């Protein structure tokens, strides 16, 4: 869930970074110029490529949670005694 929220918040920045990296020298006068150019296509332009990024993150998140639970069950979990008081 956190990965999805993070992607929703950072996808527009990734789009702007990619546009500026691939731009010819002098195509944009700065970040604000890149934002204005990208916004001509509407808000959806800031989320191009969201689905492939989401599909890339989904298996990583699922596997991490699965391995974490298995390791915790196999090696035990020792609660902090001070926090329990």
UniProtKB/TrEMBL annotation:
Solcar repeats lie at residues 1-74. It comes from the Eukaryota. InterPro entries: MCP_dom_sf, MCP_transmembrane, Mito_Metabolite_Transporter. GO terms for cellular component: membrane. It is found in: Membrane. Keywords: Membrane, Repeat, Transmembrane, Transmembrane helix, Transport. The keyword Transport applies. It is a multi-pass membrane protein. PROSITE patterns: SOLCAR (PS50920). Belongs to the mitochondrial carrier (TC 2.A.29) family. This is Mitochondrial carrier protein. It comes from Rhamnusium bicolor. The lineage of its organism: Eukaryota, Metazoa, Ecdysozoa, Arthropoda, Hexapoda.
